[in-house]
Amino acid sequence: MKTLVLILSMAGLLTLASCSQKTDPIALLKDKNTRTELFTAITNTPEMMTQFMDAVKNNKGAIQMMQSNKQMMGKMMGGKGMMNMMKNNPEMMKNMAKMMSGNMGAMHNMMKAMTKDGNMMKMMVTMMNKNGLMDNKSMESCMKMMKKKGMMEIKE
To answer: pTM value?
Structure first.
């Protein structure tokens, strides 16, 4: 009787152990629908998106692909898109700043886009003043210069 219980217990344990399956991520990503669902889940979840951006930041090939994709860089850097992204997700702003800090080309492109956007420049100058990096006189001088160059609406 003890032998029968021991044999059945061993058979049960072996059966349970064989039920655990390892998931192959590449096999999951081969299916277009599953891949789309995963991408949507990542991009719609700030914590996952932060982890994804960290992974991209640490992958030289991914960085080069992003930089060579003019359409994506344009959407990220141009118009109000960049401002809205940063305003709505401060964590994304921190991650982007981290990513840019080690990449002079990307940093240059970002600064170039910022200097073309009066609202973004005004926000940056105001933030620098608020954080003690620029005194009031310098801030006023910057704002005056931006108004002269037509970067801001003139309010008198």
So the answer is: 0.41
